[in-house]
């Protein structure tokens, strides 16, 4: 039992750390995904906005769902939410606490993606280059609408033959990048201030309820783990008994058919016990065949009666 | 038994982690395979589609099958499915649970391959370059070519070095267009897979939790029972071999005594265990004969009571006989029915 206690103390103190670790890994994975993703704006009037905004918002949704899937506690929370009350009442505060802690952790990776995207600037340049006011930029001022649209759509593509060495292109690009980075830094600042306030002001409101909710949500988590461990231990013991019972019944059958008296050899006592009366090739083959064709019933209560 | 308990707890608690680990390694392997693979679009009208779609769809199928092959539990599932009923009923829910959990893990590497392929864009560019809308993207006023000519020109889009249709449609424009479509498809595919995984995982506790707990318990039980049975058989085989070999050496020793017609020398009292373990074989010649006999005339797979002299005729140099039934030295002990 000592081993169990050690393992569960480890899990208890580290359940939060494990979840924080997964959260951090997902955030790093989102940065890595962004840097390895080959962003190529289509530079076509109707497609730019869809592509740019799609790249900015679809991966965060995917990362959020991944954050929920990879978090073990979300399953525990769902089970607690959906279980019949039985003999144990359900506490809404605990479920709310678990839900909010899961969602907060799952939000980290999407927010990291959005901020990295904004600070890099490519997405916004791609999405909004077509919405720029051409009057503000010298190179685009005196053209027909359709032409201007085409040219503005090509701004994100530096290597396009029309856009190479075009100073107006660089002006538009710089302008959009500046807006994008300003937006990125502002969002980062707002989020950090919000997190700071939430953490500092929380003890001022409902601290007792919070402590209770946190205790019972930890409890539910640990109870679930211990239940699974106990089931494993139980199934191992069950299997052990079942197999011993099987070997015993083979030995009884052999005794019944061969009328051999029990031997009294001293030196071989230990080995004979292990051999369980199965001492030649035919008997071993018969045992193996029997194991396949007729597995014993899942009932070890008879083992005690023999 | 403590050792077994520790080992089985390790396997049980870590079986899921072990399977997840294999799953993750295969996903990484599929990414690595893709980056190491040298993609070469044929740039010919009818071959492009076949090549592109083949690279997109055939490796995932291979990875899916490989996911099943590398999963140890597939043989357990097959055995449980095909065994005769005997005294133990079969539960289809358990079989379904085992199959579903294996299939889910096997799906990950193919999904990673398809996502990486679509997000990279080369396959779709190769496969669909002949379907690019030339009217909207290209130069509609270009002197009319025959349909076949246009297809041939468009098919060369992925191969920049030999592309000769710059006036028809700019190479970069076409590639950017196709890549944009491919990446959009890729992200939609990843979103779809993630949503499915999320739904499967979160709807289960809402509907069939009790049945799920039951299936999970019994599928773990079947696995543990199989492992324990293998361990017990291995233990039995070890004891069997030990007794068999011990009896062989005893037989050799007795034959030696019988052939030389002298009483076995009593080992001095203080020689201890070592002398006993020598089993009467104390010189090079005797040992060599014992080894030769072991090779030429292995004893039958039948352990007999220890007191019976069952030498196999080694000492007189007789040809080896292999009795197929055990010799009935003492009728009082057994009668085979």
UniProtKB/TrEMBL annotation, chain A:
Annotated membrane topology: Multi-pass membrane protein
Places the protein is found: Membrane
Domain of life of the native organism: Eukaryota
Sequence similarity: Belongs to the CALHM family.
A GO term, aspect molecular function: monoatomic cation channel activity
Pfam families: Ca_hom_mod
Major location (coarse): membrane
Annotated protein name in UniProt: CAHM3 protein
Swiss-Prot/TrEMBL GO biological process terms: ATP export
Transmembrane segments: 21-37, 49-72, 93-116, 182-201
Annotated InterPro entries: CALHM (IPR029569)
PANTHER family attached to this UniProt entry: CALCIUM HOMEOSTASIS MODULATOR PROTEIN (PTHR32261), CALCIUM HOMEOSTASIS MODULATOR PROTEIN 3 (PTHR32261:SF7)
One GO CC annotation: plasma membrane
Entry keywords, A to Z: Ion channel, Ion transport, Membrane, Transmembrane, Transmembrane helix, Transport
UniProtKB/TrEMBL annotation, chain B:
Highest taxon above the source species: Eukaryota
Subcellular location(s) of the protein: Membrane
Keywords: Ion channel, Ion transport, Membrane, Transmembrane, Transmembrane helix, Transport
TM regions (residue ranges): 21-37, 49-70, 184-203
UniProt entry tagged with the keyword Manganese: no
Any one of the GO CC terms: plasma membrane
InterPro entries the record matches: CALHM (IPR029569)
The name this protein goes by in its record: CAHM1 protein
Source organism of the structure: Elachura formosa
């Amino acid at each position: 039992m000592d081993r169990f206690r050690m393992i569960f103390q480890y899990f208890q103190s580290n359940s939060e750390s494990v979840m924080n670790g997964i959260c951090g890994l997902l955030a790093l994975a989102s940065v890595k995904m962004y840097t390895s993703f080959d962003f190529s704006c289509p530079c076509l009037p109707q497609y730019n906005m869809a592509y740019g905004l799609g790249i900015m918002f679809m991966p965060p949704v995917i990362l959020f769902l991944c954050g929920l899937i990879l978090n073990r506690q979300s399953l525990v929370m769902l089970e607690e939410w959906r279980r019949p009350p039985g003999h144990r009442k359900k506490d809404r505060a605990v479920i709310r606490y678990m839900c909010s802690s899961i969602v907060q952790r799952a939000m980290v990776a999407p927010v990291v993606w959005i901020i990295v995207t904004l600070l890099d600037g490519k997405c916004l340049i791609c999405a909004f280059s077509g919405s720029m006011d051409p009057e503000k930029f010298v190179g685009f001022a005196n053209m027909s609408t359709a032409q201007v649209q085409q040219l503005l759509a090509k701004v994100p593509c530096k290597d396009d033959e029309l856009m190479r060495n075009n100073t107006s292109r660089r002006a538009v690009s710089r302008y959009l990048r500046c807006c994008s980075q300003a937006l990125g830094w502002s969002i980062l600042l707002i989020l950090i201030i919000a997190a700071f306030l939430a953490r500092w002001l929380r003890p001022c409101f409902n601290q007792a309820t919070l402590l209770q909710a946190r205790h019972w949500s930890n409890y539910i988590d640990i109870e679930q783990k211990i239940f699974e461990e106990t089931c494993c231990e139980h199934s191992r013991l069950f299997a052990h008994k079942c197999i011993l019972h099987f070997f015993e019944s083979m030995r009884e059958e052999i005794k019944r058919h061969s009328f051999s008296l029990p031997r009294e050899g001293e030196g071989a006592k230990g080995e004979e016990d292990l051999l369980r009366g199965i001492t030649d090739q035919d008997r071993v083959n018969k045992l193996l065949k029997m194991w396949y064709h007729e597995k014993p019933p899942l009932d070890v209560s008879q083992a005690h009666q023999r | 038994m403590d050792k077994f308990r520790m080992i089985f707890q390790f396997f049980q608690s870590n079986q899921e982690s072990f399977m997840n680990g294999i799953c993750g390694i295969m996903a990484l392997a599929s990414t690595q395979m893709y980056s190491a693979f040298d993609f070469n679009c044929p740039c010919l009208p009818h071959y492009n589609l076949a090549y592109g779609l083949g690279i997109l769809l055939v490796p995932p199928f291979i990875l899916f099958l490989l996911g099943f092959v590398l999963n140890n539990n597939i043989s357990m599932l097959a055995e449980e499915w095909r065994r005769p009923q005997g005294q133990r009923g079969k539960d289809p829910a358990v079989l379904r649970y085992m199959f579903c959990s294996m299939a889910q893990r096997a799906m990950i590497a193919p999904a990673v391959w398809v996502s990486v392929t679509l997000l990279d864009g080369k396959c779709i560019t190769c496969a669909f370059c002949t379907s690019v809308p030339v009217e909207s993207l290209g130069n509609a006023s270009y002197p009319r070519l025959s349909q076949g000519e246009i297809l041939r020109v468009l098919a060369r889009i992925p191969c920049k070095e030999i592309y000769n249709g710059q006036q028809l449609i700019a190479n970069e424009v076409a590639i950017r267009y196709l890549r944009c479509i491919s990446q959009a498809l890729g992200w939609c595919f990843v979103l779809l897979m993630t949503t499915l995984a999320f739904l499967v995982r979160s709807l289960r506790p809402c509907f069939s939790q009790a049945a799920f707990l039951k299936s999970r318990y019994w599928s773990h039980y079947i696995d543990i029972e199989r492992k324990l049975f293998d361990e017990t058989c291995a233990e039995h085989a070890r004891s069997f071999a030990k007794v068999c070999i011990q009896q062989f050496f005893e037989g050799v020793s007795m034959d030696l005594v019988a052939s030389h017609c002298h009483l076995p020398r009593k080992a001095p009292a203080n020689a201890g265990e070592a002398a006993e373990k020598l089993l009467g074989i104390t010189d090079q010649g005797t040992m060599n004969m014992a080894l030769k006999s072991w090779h030429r005339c292995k004893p039958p797979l039948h352990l007999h009571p220890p007191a019976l002299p069952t030498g196999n005729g080694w000492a007189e140099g007789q040809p080896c006989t292999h009795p197929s039934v055990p010799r009935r030295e003492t009728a009082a002990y057994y009668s085979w029915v």
